[in-house]
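Re: the pair you flagged

First of the two:
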Amino acid sequence: MSMTLALIGETALALEAARMAQEAGLRVSLVITRHAPLRAHAEAQGIATLPPDRLDELPGGIDWLLSAGNLRPLPGAVLARFAKGAINFHDGPLPERAGRNVPVWALLEGARRHAVTWHLMTAGIDAGDILVRQGFDIPPGATAQSLNALCFAAAIESLAEVFAQMRHGLRPRPQPAGQGRMHRAADRPPADALIDGRGPLKAALRLVRALDHGDRENPLCCPKIAGPQGPVLVGAAALGDDARPNEAPGTLHAVSEESLDLVFEDGVLRLSGLRRPDGRPCAADTLFAAGDRLPVTQAEPLTARMARLAGAEPGWRARLEALRPVALAGFATPQATGEGEGESRALSVDATPERRIAAL
């Protein structure tokens, strides 16, 4: 009889793991997910599914649990339900970097190498014995989006070895105690990623690239500068003119519609892809002019405030995502009248949290 496997995850990696497990001769008997493509795959294959918030309904008799793209810690009582054990994918090198958003922190700190790790799950976060670790170079100019793609590729490439160990015997390697770092979900870059022209130019360039998730959700924060009407988000950065202007750090050396050149002590950084906090693009030359000085950031107080606030973000996000429109007496909705845009239009339940906040 083939070994049975339960799979938990919320990303495309979990979907690929389900397909590869079946190809490797493992019988996927349960999928725990809210990820629609994975759920559809499971249903098409006749595999039972379970939402992640109903783990108390786990059936018995399953050999393995494979966690791929799952960000929820699992209690020891859940892990103990699986006869042979539980294995987790971590998008960073262990024991050096445990926890959340590890590719971002690797880029922020200028790492030149990275790795992904498959390890046994324990009650501690990313603390179990290592089964497979695959390392690779971080290419110059990498962003969070591109490094995450490299992690995905390394995960797929190394997963075959994980399945081989599950079938023929594990080869665990204990993690050395006290040699790693824990990146927590609420950790944020200093000063909430505010750029003001002070400090090394390359650190600011790394900051912008490390927080560039492309069209995927950004789980930390956006790089930004202080504008005359509030924060201006920065989408991209590149080295500016090699010549170092005779201007103080924090000065805007040049401004165009698409970008602005910010002076640092050791050069000029061109910032582009500028947006308002609600995501709307903005023209740099409508907010700034050449010769303007960005205000000096009091980094430590801002960092401390964000450290206090970041821990509450998941709760607020869940509340905002659960908001529903309120029917106000005397105000017709498009569904009732067939009218188009207007002040009376009810806010759609499909609106983003940012739009809901703006509407409120």
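Second of the two:
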Amino acid sequence: DDDYANFVSTLAPALQEHQPKFVALAGRPGEQEAVWSEAGVTHFLYLGCDALDLLASLQQNLDLEVAS
């Protein structure tokens, strides 16, 4: 997690150039959430996140039917 600050702000925009359906980061964003979101990170996966909401959002981004 400590290394993320060194490369997320560079890597996320580079990935966004290829127009992915989403860019997910495995790690708690903490104080960097706004900066990383602006850079192009669309989802954050970390211990304690709302996993059900995250998975539903990823399914929608992939145009998969979301089970209710």
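The first strand starts at residue 24 and ends at 26.

-B.
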